[in-house]
Write a structure and sequence with these properties.
With 536 residues, this protein is of the alpha+beta class. The protein folds into four domains: 130 residues, PAS domain (Beta-Lactamase, 2-Layer Sandwich), CATH 3.30.450; 98 residues, PAS domain (Beta-Lactamase, 2-Layer Sandwich), CATH 3.30.450; 94 residues, Helix Hairpins (Orthogonal Bundle); 142 residues, Histidine kinase-like ATPase, C-terminal domain (Heat Shock Protein 90), CATH 3.30.565.10. Helices cover 45% and strands 22% of the residues. It has 15 helices and 17 strands. The strands form five sheets. It has a five-stranded antiparallel β-sheet with strand order 4-3-7-6-5. A five-stranded antiparallel β-sheet has the order 9-8-12-11-10, sandwiched between helices. It has a three-stranded mixed β-sheet with strand order 14-16-17, covered by helices on one side. β11 and β12 form a beta hairpin. α10 packs antiparallel against α11.
Length: 536
């Protein structure tokens, strides 16, 4: 009895399994089943079938996107070749495995939500897949296949190239934004409705407003007084496709001098979608130009005044050389006649007075001669020419022959250079300098004067007045005279500057001022060093 009942139960079970097999065969014939999943020995095995939709499945296999069929618990019951190649994993390790095994930990929560929605209908979104250390950004689209099949279809699109391009574009945009933000130019973009789209920091600072308060406002809201002005017209023209460039002008809106240009922005189809404005606040430059203009005007006025002074100086030179010297010569002439014809009749006191008068007249004559020499260094015609300096040196020695002989002086010179100079002025320079060395000799000591010269680079001397990239003629005159204290190194070149009284050394205090003027006329400098009782 028991065995009969067991057989009946076994027959019923077989009949049920046969019915299910017949249903499966019908489903396969209808193309409703692509694969079987069997689990034996705790291992899933997938068996695929060819159906009437064979061409469709071939197409899916050759998709350039991943195509998967997932069971309700996420088991991969079907995958095309693209998906496992995308993962870089063999097909055998993908099929029958859980799809959650290939979801990166950063996307687990997102994919859980997408899968849940996919079971109920449709969902899509971006996630990251991973195998080992490899992370793959993808876009997934999930669709429920119920009630036809108890599975979820999933299409996977690789976003690696897209993300790479986005990162590159982001880096380029960041680079451009950095340049725009760090620019001192006033940069702004307006759309077709003259609404501000973006500005940089310089524009924020210029307007005294943050970009949050500015962006989204129309031009007339930002500048209420701009309605009907040229800047508004320029923007409208730029939005029509015209390139606008303006020279510096005084903005009635800001009260500042602005130099700007406006450029229409076009999309890939050539349609204008906005206008770029780049402006430069040149107010400080304009103020500087005005300052320079005023300075030039003042300089021009000073040049006119200088010309007037030079004219007066020329008149003074004429007066000094004619009108002043004429009465002085008469004083000297009449004094000499009195001394020659009436000297015996004069008392000792009168003779003393006449002697002092004669000395004063000679001193006056010397002063006038020196002043004339000083004025000529500034007013004389300047014709430079190449001159051998040793020739001028010999002429000066000849002029001072009596003084050199009288003081038993030794004058050594090594000046074989040929230089471009004003001959008359340079002769006077040497005459004054050597004459000073003879005049200020130490009592009881024969003067020893040494003159040397060389061509040197301007950089040899640390002096702001010289052009260091040029070569210079360097003339040095040394003596063994009375010298002077170092505090007078500069003062001795000042007009009428005397370090000794007339009783000790005669002179007017103009000689070295003349020398300095001559050196400056030759675009040079002059310095002096002395030591008391050792020379200069």
């Amino acid at each position: 009895m028991n065995s009969v009942e067991g057989l009946l139960l076994r027959i019923e079970e077989l009949e049920n399994r046969l019915a299910e097999s017949e249903q499966l065969i019908d489903a396969i014939k209808a193309g409703e089943v692509d694969a079987f999943a069997f689990r034996t020995n705790n291992k899933s095995e997938i068996f695929t079938l060819q159906s009437g939709d064979y061409a469709y499945r071939v197409l899916v296999e050759n998709f350039s996107e991943g195509a998967l069929n997932l069971s309700e618990d996420g088991l991969i019951v079907y995958t095309n070749n693209y998906f496992h190649k995308l993962l870089g994993v063999p097909y055998e390790k993908v099929i029958g495995n859980s799809v959650f095994h290939f979801i990166h930990s950063s996307s687990t929560a997102t994919f859980n939500e997408l899968f849940k929605k996919g079971l109920a209908g449709q969902s899509k979104g971006e996630i990251n897949l991973s195998t080992g250390e490899k992370i793959i950004p993808v876009y997934v689209s999930l669709t429920s296949l119920h009630p036809t099949l108890p599975t979820v279809g999933m299409i996977v699109t690789d976003l690696t190239e897209k993300k790479r391009n986005e990162n590159e574009l982001r880096e380029k945009n960041r680079f451009i934004e950095t340049i725009i933000e760090s620019s001192h130019e006033l940069i702004a973009v307006y759309d077709r409705d003259c609404t501000l789209i973006t500005v940089n920091k310089a524009t924020e600072k210029f307007l005294g407003e943050t970009r949050e308060k500015l962006i989204g406002k129309k031009l007339t809201e930002i500048y209420p007084d701009i309605k009907g002005t040229k800047p508004e017209s320029d923007l409208l023209r730029a939005l029509q496709g015209e390139f606008i460039q303006n020279e510096a002008y005084l903005s009635k809106v800001t009260g500042r001098y602005i130099q700007n240009y406006l450029n229409p922005l076009k999309d890939e189809n050539g349609n204008i979608y906005a206008a770029l404005t780049i402006a430069h606040d040149v107010t400080d430059i304009k103020k500087a130009e005005e300052t320079i203009k005023k300075a030039n005007k003042q300089l021009e006025e000073k040049n006119i005044e200088l010309q007037r002074i030079n004219t007066e100086l020329a008149s003074f030179t004429y007066v000094a050389s004619h009108d002043l010297q004429e009465p002085l010569r008469k004083i000297q002439t009449f004094s000499n006649l009195l001394i020659e014809k009436e000297f015996e009749k004069l008392s000792d006191y009168a003779r003393s007075i006449f002697g002092r008068m004669e000395i004063a007249a000679k001193r006056m004559q010397t002063l006038i001669d020196d002043l004339l020499a000083y004025s000529r260094t500034n007013t004389s015609e300047r014709k430079f020419k190449k001159i051998k300096l040793n020739a001028i040196m010999e002429e000066v020695k000849g002029d001072l022959k009596e003084e050199i002989k009288e003081k038993n002086a030794l004058v050594e010179s090594d000046v074989s250079c040929e230089i471009n100079i004003l001959e008359f002025q340079f002769r006077q320079l040497l005459h004054n300098l050597i004459g000073n060395s003879l005049k200020f000799a130490r009592p009881g000591q024969a003067p020893h004067i040494k003159i040397t010269s060389e061509i040197v680079e301007g950089s040899t001397y640390n002096n702001d007045k010289r052009f260091t990239e040029q070569n210079y003629f360097h003339l040095v005159i040394t003596d063994n005279g009375i010298g002077f204290e170092s505090i007078y190194n500069e003062k001795i070149f000042e007009l009428f500057q005397r370090l000794h009284g007339r009783q000790e050394y005669n002179g007017t205090g103009i000689g070295l001022a003349i020398v300095k003027r001559i050196v400056e006329n030759h675009n040079g400098i002059i310095t002096a060093r002395g030591e008391v009782d050792k020379g200069a």
